[in-house]
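Example for tutorial group B:
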């Protein structure tokens, strides 16, 4: 505007603004920005503006084919840089990132040397950036993708901005819907966090981090973060910790609506990096399918913990032993110990015993906690096949037990169904490591877990 007014002093700024408005009305809504109209007016007036057009726009305004666009946005997430091969065998670098403003969200591709722009790896979710002289192409679904190549750049922007911060665009997991992309979602961790390993469709080893989030209305949504593992999780995570996923999409899976992310997804969990030594008495021990040793322990305050020993460093220990251990990870009431986890056997007379830890049936409540009970079998265990909603057929064993305070159903699914095979009506059993959930007609039922051990009372 200033350059044009310098060459056309007979026109005022108000005159120019009116001409811009008329030009935009003539061309039609949605085609011109004020700057674009100004360049057309300059041509009409026989004035050449020497600088190339720098179209500053919002993310909602980008369109396939746009060139030399400049826009302000905030970072949602930044992906690791990757190397690819062209058909001619030459190599190129590519880094993806996701940005957002007050209206929309978009993917950005940084090519070759732009993939390693100074400071790009230090950008954090919510940081303000300016994308300069970028161009827009479409992805395979026709969505516009911002490209930063030769002649383009991304710069940190320390100016004040009206673009909302990350907290302002964070949704509670209870409110997510189908077919949403680039979401920022928060909720309460429900249960444990685990990493699964598998072979992908290319025959390559892959992994995924799985967790569940509980929303403000009690809704529980499963989340799967592909190509991520527990290295992105704090070493100590308390039960009921608040978590946030930055950069996820919704997808309908076999169990309903799910959140899916990838290696670019940022996982924020309330937790700590430092782990304090823990003193526990071993109540029971068994083995998992992967041959890891699974133990149920009790702390000084009678809280029960599930311990997974991935390297069998507790193989010489037996139920009743008290140990001081520094786990490698703590997720709620679940501890992981590895080959280099410091461990020593101690006296620990003040640590509760199994008899101190047992819960009466009337006091068992549905929760994420673990229970130990002692009861008599009223109904001989029965095994049957159950077909799940997904069409899978699984084994279920169930028996009805009681103590002097009440009765309850004890059930074991899949591999745990075998734990009840050897018992008959009238026997007294000790059961460690069971969980409680609402059953039929709202009655509480207890379920065997991978940590459970069932023994006959002598």
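The residue assignment follows.
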């Amino acid at each position: 505007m200033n350059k044009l007014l310098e060459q056309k002093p007979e026109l005022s700024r108000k005159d120019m603004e009116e001409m811009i408005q008329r030009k935009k009305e003539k061309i039609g809504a949605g085609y011109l920005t004020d700057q674009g109209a100004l360049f057309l007016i300059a041509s009409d007036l026989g004035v050449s503006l020497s600088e190339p057009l720098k179209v500053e726009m919002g993310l909602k305004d980008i369109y396939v084919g746009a060139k030399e666009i400049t826009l302000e946005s905030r970072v949602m997430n930044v992906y690791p840089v990757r190397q690819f091969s062209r058909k001619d065998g030459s190599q190129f670098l590519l880094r993806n990132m996701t940005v957002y403003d007050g209206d929309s969200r978009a993917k950005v591709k940084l090519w070759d040397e732009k993939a390693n722009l100074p400071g790009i790896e230090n950008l954090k979710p919510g940081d303000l950036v300016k994308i300069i002289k970028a161009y827009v192409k479409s992805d395979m679904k026709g969505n516009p993708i911002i490209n930063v190549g030769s002649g383009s750049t991304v710069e940190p922007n320390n100016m004040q901005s009206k673009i909302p911060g990350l907290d302002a665009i964070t949704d509670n997991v209870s409110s997510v819907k189908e077919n949403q992309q680039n979401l920022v979602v928060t909720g309460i961790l429900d249960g444990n966090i685990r990493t699964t390993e598998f072979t992908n469709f290319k025959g390559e080893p892959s992994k995924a981090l799985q967790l569940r989030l509980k929303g403000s209305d009690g809704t529980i949504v499963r989340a799967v973060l592909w190509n991520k593992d527990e290295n992105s999780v704090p070493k100590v995570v308390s039960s009921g910790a608040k978590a946030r996923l930055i950069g996820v999409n919704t997808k309908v899976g076999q169990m309903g609506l799910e959140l899916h992310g990838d290696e670019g997804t940022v996982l924020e969990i309330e937790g700590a990096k430092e782990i304090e030594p823990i003193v526990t008495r071993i109540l029971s021990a068994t083995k998992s399918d992967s041959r890891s040793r699974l133990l149920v322990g009790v702390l000084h305050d009678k809280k029960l913990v599930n311990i997974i020993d991935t390297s069998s460093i507790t193989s010489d220990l037996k139920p009743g032993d008290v140990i001081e251990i520094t786990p490698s990870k703590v997720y709620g009431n679940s501890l992981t110990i590895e080959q280099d986890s410091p461990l020593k056997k101690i006296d620990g007379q003040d640590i509760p015993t199994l008899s101190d830890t047992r819960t009466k049936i009337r006091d068992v409540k549905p929760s994420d906690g673990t229970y130990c009970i002692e009861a008599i079998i009223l109904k001989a265990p029965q095994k049957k096949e159950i077909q799940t909603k997904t069409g899978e057929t699984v084994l279920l064993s169930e028996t009805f037990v009681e103590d002097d305070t009440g009765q309850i159903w004890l059930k074991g699914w899949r591999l745990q169904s075998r734990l009840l095979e050897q018992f008959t009506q009238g026997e007294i059993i000790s059961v460690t490591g069971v969980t409680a959930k609402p059953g039929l007609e709202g009655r509480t039922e207890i379920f065997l877990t991978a940590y459970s051990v069932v023994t006959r009372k002598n």
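The chain has five domains: 1-53, 63-164, 167-269, 278-346, 358-456. Compare this with the pattern of hydrophobic and polar residues in the output above.
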